[in-house]
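Re-running PX domain-containing protein to confirm reproducibility after the cluster update. Everything else is unchanged from the original entry.
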Amino acid sequence: MISPERSPSQSPRSPAAAAGAPFLSISVTDPVKMGTGVQAYISYRVITKTNLPEFEGPEKIVIRRYSDFEWLHDRLAERYKGIFIPPLPEKNAVEKFRFSKEFIELRRQALDMFVNRIASHPELKQSEVLRVFLQADEEKMDRARSYETGIFKRPADFLQMFKDVQSKVSDVVLGKEKPVEESTPEYEKLKNYIFELENHLAEAQKQAYRLVKRHRELGQSLAEFGKAIKLLGACEGDMMEKVFSEVGSKSEMLSIKLQREADNLLFNFEEPLKDYVRAVQSIKATMMDRANAFRQHFDLDQERKYKELNLEKLKFMNPEKYAEAESEFRELTADSEEATKKFEHIVRLMNEELARFQEQKTADIGLAFHEFAKGQAKLAKDIADAWRSILPKLEACLTS
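Result of re-run:
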């Protein structure tokens, strides 16, 4: 059994067209298996409704597969340093579960959540790559994905890769020490919080998984118990057969309720916790961008200070080389200032993003626990009512 899709409060949508307010609503629907064997994959219909003028029209429907969502995620991560890019569901899955109804629905919900979080973000929703993802036909989407992630990767990327490798080789050859890292009380507090949050969320998600498993196992046990009791009653005959048959029927009915609650726990409790485990990974990726930006800022600033001292010496010792060195110093100063601005920009964005993350996490996790408590309360009542209803008949058997 597959649960209905998650509550709209967990998948931000605001179609306020009736009021004339700007809106962007996206739905990931209709998963369909395409191809066979190892080439098989799931495609999705992505439906966009909007009144924003930068879009082609009020409604657009395109077909997308997982690699297209991955393309969108990676392009945003490249272009929006400092912003927590919403997480994608895991790419790999055990082959025998990859096309199960449950797995497909879980992935559909996660992809729907992913793209709607982008659409609700004040910066990301303005991205050109989002508009390409939501509007380009399949042929254009394939070309864009191949150009930026495949054999047609941009030359600038290869140049950056070469520079990164060259820098690493130089560090090894020259025996440079480990790069300096940012260390302020505020940033250390942030890092400690993120790592603790990751650990606690992962543990909570693991225990939620066990709860789902136990509900399913208990449900299966009750179903088997119900069949056994009915067979036992058939051997007894008369009044015992009727009472035992009712006990068996109640067990089978409760088995179905436990299976339904297991699905509810999976979709509305375990999966939201798992989604936030992935979200923390996105934050850690942003922290890595921040660390890289800090090192670039620090290294260029140190080099600028060294060049400045050297420039003063050349002014008196070697006037002929002074003009050339002064030109190099100006270029280095400009690069250093640009690196400092980039680092400060990432720090500012991260502070804003953390506030957004905290607010959204409180709402989403609070809703998940509300759904958990509500489901458990209803299940407990149904179980108690079911067993209580047959107590008089069992008592009658004892006195007969």
